Amino acid sequence: MDLTNVQQTALMTMYGKALDARADDPILGDTMADAAVHKMDFDFSTLKLPKGGQISLPVRAKQLDGWTREFLAAHRDAVVLHLGCGLDTRVHRVDPGPDVRWYDVDQPEIIALRRELYPSRAGYELVSRSITEPGWVEELAAERPVLVVGEGLVMHVPTAEDVALFRRIMGAFPSGQFIFDVYAASTAKVVTLASKLGRTPVQLHTGLPQALRAELPELKLTDSVPFLTLPELVSRMSGNLFGRLYFRAIEAGWTRDSILHLRYRFG
Fold this sequence. Notes:
Keywords: Methyltransferase, Transferase. This protein has helices at residues 5-21, 31-39, 53-74, 90-94, 108-117, 136-139, 159-172, 185-197, 208-215, 231-237, 241-251; strands at residues 79-83, 101-106, 124-128, 146-150, 176-183, 220-226, 259-266. By secondary structure, the chain is an alpha/beta fold. The chain has a seven-stranded mixed beta sheet with strand order 3-2-1-4-5-7-6, with helices on both faces. The longest helix is centred in the first third of the chain and has 22 residues, at 53-74. The model has no long low-confidence stretch (mean pLDDT 93).
């Protein structure tokens, strides 16, 4: 495989979920991700998986899976745009109904790898395009509600390009929701620096919630969940004294909003 640094993060995300699937008490239980890891001729030990990634990555996915299921339960004929889908198996985990149109969108190298790893299914299409490339949103426009999922995505895209993409999607669909995670500026700086010390350096961007509030006021924030306070994350990562003290400090306000899961609606 000849993947860029950002694309290699797709491997790390899948590997974290695969490790969770092997646990006695898994969080996500993504056995398809584990099967994909075993299929690949790749040394996953060369990846610098974030400490606790076998917990934090499944917890993040589980939160967004839950919001996805809620939306599809209320909108059985929805369109799902899974942006920067990477090697995630969300469409198989959520298992949407027959009237849902689900599109996994990512760069050609990632989509080609997905075709080798995962089965096709009815109502499901792969879109081999960069998410910021013009034209593809308009090709998928429909008079249906849309759910836009961006797991671990928006911070990898310049904020102005995120806003432009959101605006295009809102112009192509009558109503819908956006669900994604964001980093605070200080967190983005730390993660960017740490990545440069490893083998997959990235440059993260911040400020999307503020930009959306200023430039897309018709997009309304409905939920803001501090990731580091999610009960399953806290219970799983508080196994020692340091962990317990760390999460108590977060509850008291220290770094509480360093990572947020956000849900917006429009229409």
